Amino acid sequence: MGFRKKEKHLLEEWINLYRDKFRIEFAAEGQRINKQKIENLIKCHILNYRDTSEHIYLLCMSSDNETIPVYVGKSVNPYTRWKSHIGKLLEGKGSYLRWKNLLIHDDNIAKHALILLIIPDNEILTPPIPNFPKTVGSVEYQLVSLVSDAYPDTLLNKEGNRR
């Protein structure tokens, strides 16, 4: 199996474990980004997981054939974190200009179907890379590493960059 193919396979296997249960519909392709709607979906989602201390999240471009993570992070409060991310994405200033160029048109219409996976730490069953730790920090690092190898042109965060 080729280098990128292996990383894509590991990502696909891991994402498929969580895709249905932890998926939030961020926007359909061609749909206007609705900040309030997304914030409400995130708030409702995390209310189901109050007994967790941290979450892993992945913003992904999604199609029938493939789910491509474009941003990976962790947070104790993903609602607050994503409230900030969404506002800055729509503004498209500073480092979020790259986000906007990749994900949305100037009129805030999604260029791709976008989903957000928010996974509580106590629901992480396995690490993305076999035999690695499954702590939130380790999983975040593994995912960023895999995505940067498998999809280097679309990852919006890089290992070692402050987020």
Can you walk through the features of this model?
The protein contains five helices and four strands. It has a four-stranded antiparallel β-sheet, with helices on both faces. The model has no long low-confidence stretch (mean pLDDT 92). It has one domain (3-150). It has 163 residues and is of the alpha+beta class. It is globular and about 45 Å long.
- The domain tally reads 1
Note the run of SSEs as H and E: HEHEEHHEH
Question: Overall pLDDT, averaged?
Answer: 92
Determine the N-to-C terminus distance: 33 Å
**Integer-rounded radius of gyration:** 15 Å
Q: Give the neighbour order of strands across the main sheet.
A: 1-4-2-3
Beta-strand share of residues: 15-25%
**Biggest sheet layout:** 4 strands, antiparallel
Overall geometric form: globular
Number of helices: 5
- Tell me roughly what share of residues is in helical segments: 40-55%
Task: Report low-confidence residues grouped into runs of 5 or more.
Answer: none
Number of strands: 4
Structural class: alpha+beta
